[in-house]
């Protein structure tokens, strides 16, 4: 039976009681951190009962489970999320209120687990939330990085990376499970042992080993008593090695094992859509893949004898190519541990694995040097060689005589292991993350594979969880929606359509915009406290928050701000609605241009914010350390959402959906899921500009785009570009932004210029932006547009996405929790 949160009164007593037993303190003496820990235990108590009940139902019902394999789970803080899902948020808030404590301050004590970079990791977290809410049996499998995504400090306008030591103090939501430890082996060699029956045994020797220990985190469903598990793996040395012991047989091996274990799960690679071919990264991949498969198989074999029926109970979904070793490792275990032959093992594997692609950016396609791969994983490499050999034969059989094609598609070629090729060869499903993205995969980037296996390809448009990104992040709007249309939307977002009946009702629109204003005040206060910049909540809040990447074109946004500033300076009487341009973005630590764009935004902010002559018509704010916890408040406060990637480059985007859910109006390109937002909204409620993906792809193919021509034809662009290198925004060092100028024009060398068509789309962006300015002046017109966005957001719930994965790929049954 589902256990529910106690009443406000009981919660109050429990919190006081826990503070006493945990910290030996009267409540009045407790710190905010201690109160947070007490609250976490009060909530945990309920969560754990439901977790136990869920696990019992697993055993009784023996359902098929999905294992969501991901190097990243950007789960964000759990206290608030769990209180929402256990339906106890208001009760805890009231209890704390009675005790004279603000719940926000308590929630703020929790470290924000940042075990991911951005979109891909946050998607994994939304999926887990939806799986539990829809009552589907699921495990998340990932890594317990000791240091997650770095914390960002801005100093003198530059990004500084500070390590994120989120495990410094005990994390109250994780549970170490030493009873599910497994060994993972690296390096060494393979010995062949001929068996009397004519077969060969492959024996892995001379390896280094670590022990993988899982930490389980509860994943709560909304109001249903379901609690799934996110297992994140940590590494420890196989034997605790004692330096003072002379009896140790192999001293140097013991040292190696210990160092291996120490480094393995230390830190998340802070790259987004760009790979870094570091050996440690490959080790991390194999480590969590091997451990997760071992745990999944152990669980299966506890209740089933026939390993051949594994696909009836288990599916591994690979979140991008990062866990592609799942394919070869599953083959290895089936053959070397369970004694199956190749064909039997391949039959099972290819019915158990599915792959999601998240990018078409060529620099993000994962490839590993064969020598590194072979040295690190000698037995796995042998298996990859055999997968490759058979796969190439299959290509030849289907396309006789086309050796070019074989070379293009091979898993092993050019001295590399091509992870996407292996993932596609073995998976029974290959999906993109938005309709446009999937079409581009089929017709352009993975066209060869599509021709070979058209039946494998399918689309699963991304989604987001409304529980975190509306109920938790924007409780005022959430309560208002409940008042208007009831609670159905919480687990069925399509019901937001019912808001249609209020889009022409002025009173409702007034209420709706009053909530937006409140949320803008909340963010303004945050900005004042964190940035020392005063912003006017009555100005338009125009927001671009996401990882910093040239394809996402933060540069286009800030160049446009520079242009608007020029316009206002030249024409002070000009009709311009005061606007606050808000940015938030982390740049990968080694990505020079990205870091320089952050510096540019901050320098432009410094100049414009201090120019008294423009009457505060423009403010520019760079929010430091953009992350899940402050994101919730930022989405809630946005009027305009900037989704301006070069068409064809953003696989889906999910921030776009979070803004829409919170009643912001999008200015964007026909890229990723923006295309589907446009379809849901109709042209009147979204501002589209710029080239289409077909146009971009054609320019790339024909190599016929010259940014210098564009500049010469547009004096606004000329002026803005001049200001980039004349010291206007960097008096001490006019050359500071030269690399950005060069990246756009590149008059010196032969490298390609303006790869992301910033200048090409500039005029169209400016024109479209003027329409936004016009529209905002008409209060009710704007309010209606914003509310239409909320009303049409239904499709973009991760509940819908997960249901599609279940129907088309995973074929799971709901767990019965009665
Ligand atoms: C790979 C190898 C070595 C080091 C790092 C990486 C690496 C890490 C993270 C490569 C890529 C990523 C992240 C990619 C990502 O976040 N992609 C985004 O996925 C979202 C969810 O599908 C989409 O909405 C975004 O459009 C897409 O950019």
Explain what the structure shows.
It comes from Pseudobutyrivibrio ruminis. The modification N6-(pyridoxal phosphate)lysine is found at residue 658. Belongs to the glycogen phosphorylase family. It catalyses: [(1->4)-alpha-D-glucosyl](n) + phosphate = [(1->4)-alpha-D-glucosyl](n-1) + alpha-D-glucose 1-phosphate. Its EC number is 2.4.1.1. α10 packs antiparallel against α11, α10 (325-337) packs across α13 (378-398) and α12 crosses α13. The longest helix has 30 residues, at 32-61. The mean pLDDT is 96. The termini are close together. The radius of gyration is 27 Å and the shape is globular. It contains 32 helices and 23 strands. It has three domains: 1-61 and 87-111, no CATH class; 62-77 and 112-462 and 803-810, Rossmann fold, CATH 3.40.50.2000; 466-691 and 756-796, Rossmann fold, CATH 3.40.50. By secondary structure, the protein is α/β, with parallel strands linked by helices. Strands 1, 2, 5, 6, 9, 10, 11, 12, 16 and 17 form a ten-stranded mixed sheet that branches. It has a six-stranded parallel sheet with strand order 20-19-18-21-22-23, sandwiched between helices. It binds ligand 26Q. The site of ligand 26Q has 24 residues, from α6.
The main sheet comes to:
10 strands, mixed
Average pLDDT number:
96
Radius of gyration computed on alpha carbons? 27 Å
Low-pLDDT residue intervals, each spanning 5 or more residues: none
CATH T-level topology of the largest domain: Rossmann fold
Keywords: Carbohydrate metabolism, Glycosyltransferase, Pyridoxal phosphate, Transferase
Catalytic activity: [(1->4)-alpha-D-glucosyl](n) + phosphate = [(1->4)-alpha-D-glucosyl](n-1) + alpha-D-glucose 1-phosphate
Organism: Pseudobutyrivibrio ruminis
Modified residues (N6-(pyridoxal phosphate)lysine): 658
